[in-house]
Design brief:
single chain; 37 residues; 1 helix; 0% strand
Length: 37
């Protein structure tokens, strides 16, 4: 039970970080495209 909870917590944290990074990259690309870069 304990190891599973730890793995789940790690996975959720990693997913949140990846999601934030992916969103940031998408926003950056959108801004560049909007500026006509």
């Amino acid at each position: 039970m304990v190891p599973k909870a730890s793995t789940r917590r790690r996975k959720t944290i990693a997913g949140a970080k990846i999601g934030r990074v992916s969103q940031a990259t998408k926003v950056a690309q959108a801004v560049r495209d909007a500026r006509g870069g």
